[in-house]
Write the structure tokens for this entry.
Amino acid sequence: MYSRIGVSGIAIGAALLVAMSAPVLRADSINKKTVLAVSEAVQVPGAVLQPGTYVFELPNNPLDGNIVRVFDEDQSHLLTTFMAIPDYRLRPTNHTVIQLEERESKAPQAIHTWFYAGESDGLEFVYPR
């Protein structure tokens, strides 16, 4: 089954940098595999993702549920792994939602939260100050 990625910025005037038409593969809801296409550079903890397509997923082990892994499009290279903290929203949507956080003028926007389609529980990405 395929769904669409929805993106919303949380900072006033934040531009939508993430392509909204990238499909989300829902083959395995345990690892929350999400295919994300970005049209501008975007930051995740420990890396800046240049325009392209990436795969976000959690390890298949439920005990590691706050570890996020980011791969290149064909999942042949692990680009970064980082810890996130649990987040919650009142109403789940039927599509994955990525929320951005605006950064300084020349810095890429950062992914703030990731909510998998149909779920109220998500992950907040944590950045060093």
